[in-house]
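Much of our argument rests on the idea that a fold can be written as discrete symbols. The record that follows shows the chain in one-letter code together with its fold in token form.
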Amino acid sequence: MFQSIQNKRIKYVLLIMCLILLIVLLRVFWVQVIEYKKLNTLANDLWSRNLPVQADRGRILDRNGKVIADNITTASLILIPNQIEDKEKVAKTLSEILGVSYEEMYKHVSKKTSIEKVHPEGRGLSYEIADKINSYEFDGVYLVKEAKRFYKYNDLLSHVIGYVGIDNQGLSGLELLYDKYLTGTNGNIKYYSDGKGKKLELSEIYENPKSGNDIYLTVDLDLQLALERELNNAVDKYKAAGAIGIVMNPKTGEIFAMGSKPSFNPTNYKDYTVETINRNLAIWQNFEPGSTFKIVTLASAIEEGVVNVFEDKFYDTGSIKVKGATLHCWRHKGHGLQTYVQVAENSCNPGFVTLGLKLGKEKLFSYIDKFGFGKKTGIDLNGESKGIIFDTSKIGDLETATTAFGQGVSVTAIQQVNAVSAIVNNGNMYTPYIVSKVVNDKEIIIENVPKLKKENLISEKTSDVVKYVLESVVANGSGRNAYIENYRVGGKTGTAQKVGSDGHYMVGNYILSFIGFMPANDPEYVVYIAIDNARGVVQYGGTVSAPIAGSIFKEIINLYDLKEDYEGLPKTYKWDDIVYEMVPDVINMSKKEAQKLLKNFTIEYSGNGDKVVDISPSPGNRIKQRGVVKLLLN
């Protein structure tokens, strides 16, 4: 009996031991197989340390792949305080190299933390400084790669591109709008240390950083450089308060160039005022447009059939009365009897008042609304303004009259460009845009295409008439300083008196503008130039802004190899105009024959023969009348 009980006890003990062994085995299996990855990760996290390696930010390029915003490689100083044995020596050495106080550096090297970033004095270090630090081979002192934004052309396109902070994060412009696409994925250097932070003799693991995505713009860098050069020259020449320039394709909405002054260097953005760095005047500044707004009035009147610009006449006495107020023309004595083509050529305010009154406030303001004034254009940039337009329920004939010639309304430059683009593009309006695509390596992840915003705002016939009138303005009227012989250019000047903070017009302070397009019969480029408060010059858009626009058109001709078009309106020269003529080809002609063809030039001879063997300037070049042409005789 006793033996039987003892055997049972032994069996129970063995059974319990087997169960315990089974549990242990199952637990080992669970730890070694099921939870291996989790526990291994936890162990690695406990022993491993990561030194960050910053990724390059995506580049910003023009439409042809030319880099505008890039990156340069610098170094960042990181300390592992537990690995630094002689803290006084390290602090003293680093303070001397970096030019900071010993006390400040000692705080870094003795801080109770696993990894200490020396910020900001240890950020963006040059190769020279990094080499000095590296030469001491201090334990616990590390230099890791850091990417720094590099703007190749300083202030070029600065308000569009924006700027980044010290950690390469976008703070304004496209850098901010597309920050999540431009920001790369950081890498790191992984090493192992014990509980006290001492580095273990285990292999390091390097994880490569991944660069951000590249952004391609619709901007042409060469044209942008030309535009900004002209704006800078204008600001310097006229001591102007500011300047704006835009070049856009009316058929697509693509922005070829955009600039505003004053600008800033994004690398040193902290050296500028908040207003300078955050205001892209081309899309933000509201101002009375002046006579460039007459294009809208003209197109509306033609579309509604209230005027035949070729046959209807208007007699300008120099002023017109509306509701007891006298509205003046810029020419005190007036222009006399004119067709409405001549009203546009002469930028005659009273003539446009009559068009506004014939349309009536409801019609005029309905077209103003159609053409997008009082609303954002939708351009893919931040900071765009809407402008200010009269509430039609609160206006009468006087406000209608002043609006017709561009006074009393407030608009932005991009609104004007977009509206005129629609008018000269057969009534079809596209949303302006400046980002073409976002590319990851060679894969396009975002691609912007032309977006037709509104169509048939005016008829094709109306558009053709407006284009003819505006080509005549450049050939024969106030925009003649933008004329280019044998190329078709249309446009309109504007001279708008600025309104002060007290709500009154400022004396002698104007925004002088010009908006034009080419080729006039089938526009592919719309150019807008505005100069704010030009000094030391006659205050007219035709005097200041039209020549600048003419220079931009010439750049366009050269950049895109536009061919001459002899079907345009010929310029009627005034007595004080400089006349240019093409040098004819007289090579192989006799001296007498050459003299007949060169009668409008001053001829200088080299040689005593009777046959022309060479000519300078070369045939086809244009020089001033009575300019010198040199003939080499045989």
The chain has four domains: 2-34, 50-216, 221-560, 580-633.
